[in-house]
């Protein structure tokens, strides 16, 4: 049996006895599979006499399809391709079936002259216990048609093998490669260092668990989760499981992308909602709906129109859209079209296809046929406020058939509601601002005092930012003794209250000024009046008294910008000493600053809206104003027009400006008056 002749000392009989009484079932077969010898354990297993088994192919004792598998394994063993155990089902005499692993080893021929000595195969059967069989079944179920591999790594040789034979995943990852180093070459470059470090630890006797990326034999990237336990022995091994988690990783990535998209979507919804709530013009509301909401709904076009005098109107930018001009100006009650119907009954309409629209609104076919935008689905919702009348209509267009989900419909109606509230608020604000504007202009002097020896120009410019009406004011007051009072101020706040407060301050100021020559006292009395009324009203103010005979100027200041003086193509800034705004601190005394208005010099008083804003520092604004005033100093009216047009600080605040110029050189300054005037820009004591 071992390929050598037994010696005559009886060893052949000893070997035969050992074969016969071996604990594992064994048979010696010919090359055609016929049984030559069967040991006692084999005959007991199958419940047959040895005579019944001799001459019968051993694989005929298997169950069903395993007969063929046994035959193939026998042929492979003869060809020297064996070496692995084959799991087979045994058909016993009592009709029962047992699971076993067969180990087939070829034997070379001993003597080619006799059949009994021809080369054959030794078949050793290892009958699996119930627990072993169950584990084998579980292992096969784990790997059969799944993305898993049960594997073992020989740590002494670095070779791997699959515990239950080849699997599709194993073939895809490694193919016929069994060397660990060859397989590690497929690991993603970004993960290889981490994988090698973990493998080194496993060679030292530690368990292994890693998740990493590899490139399969087709070149596709796959994500694997590999777990293994160190099994000591001869040799030491790692035994574990490889799971392909590519789909799981991709799902996690898709979920993460979806969450990022949803977060961005939520941010965009919040941002646009905030813009709607803070919009200050009807056109801005329409433009938001027409332009900035498309990414949320994935449409190709959005149209927003408001109702004005019974007609549908688009914003100026909306009219640039290809087919909006066909709708702009149509009657809002024209129910032959979806928009008119929605406005009339305030019920949203959603159409998933062109055919659905035409079947309900045949007249819309002309608009759809001529439209440059090839819409395939429409959602039309009313823009409504608190009343029962729709304020406008909003339509979303998709480039392919689209079913608007419940969330999309709810979101469109929510945005339309916010737009309606914004339109109501804007109309209310416009009404208030129109009233404030009327109050403001009534409170300002319709015509300022005129003097033959002075050219005076005044101008009031309302803010263009959000239709704000503020409390800027100016006045020219004729005073005794050939003097004139020049006043510019700015009341805190906006709207009707600011305009009304401005009128009250100007009237009070004029009353005090006509009875008091000292500008500091006039400011102090006006301040006392504001603080004693109990109303929270603050105002910055600049008051300048000019002696028309001598040119002496006395200024009392409460937070206003400096005076701009221009002559001979140059300009100068005069900054009188300033006190706090009026209405802030009671019993405030305002210092008087004195200076002479040189012959031919043009003087400008202005509110801060002309020279200062969040984007323009006051010094920059004053420099631009000074250069423009110097260029037009000979003509106050022209200078006022130029300054109004240039408005260096923009039109975010309202503007009041007053420009004056002596029409002829001033007379001789009396010696006593000259003695009272301090050097340019310095402060003289306030008059008692």
From TrEMBL:
Keywords: Hydrolase. Transmembrane segments: none annotated. CDD domains: PAS. Residues 11-81 form the PAS domain. PANTHER family: STAGE II SPORULATION PROTEIN E (PTHR43156:SF2), STAGE II SPORULATION PROTEIN E-RELATED (PTHR43156). It comes from the Bacteria. InterPro entries: Bact_Sigma-Reg (IPR052016), GAF (IPR003018), GAF-like_dom_sf (IPR029016), PAS (IPR000014), PAS-like_dom_sf (IPR035965), PAS_fold (IPR013767), PAS_fold_3 (IPR013655), PPM-type-like_dom_sf (IPR036457). The keyword Hydrolase applies. Residues 669-688 are annotated as: Disordered. GO terms for molecular function: phosphatase activity. Coiled coil: none annotated. It holds the Pfam family GAF_2. This is PAS domain S-box-containing protein. GO terms for biological process: regulation of DNA-templated transcription.
């Amino acid at each position: 049996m071992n390929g050598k002749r037994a010696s005559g000392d009886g060893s052949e009989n000893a070997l035969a006895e050992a074969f016969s009484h071996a604990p594992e079932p064994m048979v010696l077969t010919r090359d055609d599979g016929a049984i030559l010898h069967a040991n006692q354990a084999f005959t007991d297993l199958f419940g047959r006499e040895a005579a019944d088994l001799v001459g019968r192919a051993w694989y005929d004792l298997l169950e069903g399809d395993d007969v063929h598998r046994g035959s193939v394994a026998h042929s492979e063993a003869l060809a020297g391709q064996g070496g692995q155990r084959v799991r087979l089902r045994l058909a016993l005499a009592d009709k029962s079936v047992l699971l076993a692993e067969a180990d087939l080893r070829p034997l070379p021929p001993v003597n080619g002259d006799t059949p009994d000595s021809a080369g054959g195969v030794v078949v050793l059967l290892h009958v699996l216990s119930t627990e072993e069989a169950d584990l084998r079944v579980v292992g096969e179920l784990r790997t059969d048609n799944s993305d898993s591999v049960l594997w073992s790594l020989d740590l002494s040789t670095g070779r791997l093998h699959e515990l239950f034979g080849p699997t599709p995943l194993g073939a895809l990852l490694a193919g016929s490669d069994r060397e660990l180093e060859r397989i590690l070459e497929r690991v993603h470059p970004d993960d290889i260092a981490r994988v090698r470090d973990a493998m080194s630890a496993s060679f030292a006797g530690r368990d292994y668990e890693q998740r990493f990326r590899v490139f399969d034999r087709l070149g596709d990237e796959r994500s694997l989760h590999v777990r293994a336990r160190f099994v000591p022995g001869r040799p030491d091994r790692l035994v574990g499981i490889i799971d392909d988690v590519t789909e799981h990783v991709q799902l996690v990535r898709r979920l993460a992308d979806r969450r990022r998209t949803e977060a961005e979507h939520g941010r965009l919804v919040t941002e646009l909602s905030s813009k709607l709530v803070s919009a200050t013009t009807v056109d801005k509301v329409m433009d938001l709906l027409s332009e900035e909401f498309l990414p949320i709904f994935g449409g190709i076009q959005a149209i927003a129109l408001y109702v004005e005098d019974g007609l549908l109107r688009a914003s100026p930018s909306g009219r640039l859209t290809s087919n909006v001009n066909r709708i702009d100006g149509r009657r809002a009650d024209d129910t032959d079209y979806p928009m008119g119907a929605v406005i009339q009954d305030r019920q949203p309409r959603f159409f998933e296809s062109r055919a659905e629209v035409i079947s309900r609104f045949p007249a819309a076919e002309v608009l759809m046929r001529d439209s440059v935008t090839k819409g395939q689905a429409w959602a039309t919702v009313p823009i409504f406020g608190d009343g029962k009348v729709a304020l406008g209509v909003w339509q979303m267009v998709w480039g392919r058939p689209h079913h608007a989900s419940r969330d999309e419909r709810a979101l469109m109606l929510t945005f339309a509601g916010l737009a309606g509230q914004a339109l109501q608020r804007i109309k209310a604000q416009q009404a208030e601002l129109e009233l404030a504007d009327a109050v403001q202009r009534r409170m300002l002097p319709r015509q300022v005092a005129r003097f033959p020896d002075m050219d005076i120009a005044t101008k009031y410019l309302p803010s263009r930012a959000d239709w704000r009406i503020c409390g800027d004011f100016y006045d020219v007051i004729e005073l005794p003794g050939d003097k004139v009072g020049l006043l510019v101020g700015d009341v805190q706040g906006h709207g009707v209250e600011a305009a009304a407060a401005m009128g009250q301050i100007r009237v009070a100021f004029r009353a005090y000024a006509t009875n008091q020559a000292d500008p500091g006292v006039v400011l102090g009395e006006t301040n006392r009046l504001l603080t004693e009324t109990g109303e929270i009203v603050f105002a910055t103010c600049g008051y300048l008294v000019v002696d028309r005979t001598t040119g002496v100027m006395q200024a009392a200041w409460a937070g206003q910008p400096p005076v701009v003086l221009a002559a001979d193509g140059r300009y100068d800034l005069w900054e009188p000493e300033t006190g706090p705004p009026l209405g802030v601190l009671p019993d405030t005394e305002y210092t008087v600053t004195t200076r002479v208005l040189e012959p031919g010099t043009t003087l400008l008083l202005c509110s801060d809206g002309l020279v200062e804003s969040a984007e323009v520092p006051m010094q920059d604004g004053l420099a631009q104003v000074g250069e423009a005033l110097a260029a037009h100093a000979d003509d106050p009216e022209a200078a006022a027009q130029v300054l109004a047009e240039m408005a260096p600080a923009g039109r975010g605040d309202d503007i009041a400006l007053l420009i004056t110029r002596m029409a002829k050189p001033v007379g001789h300054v009396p010696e006593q008056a000259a003695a009272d005037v301090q050097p340019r820009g310095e402060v003289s004591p306030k008059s008692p």
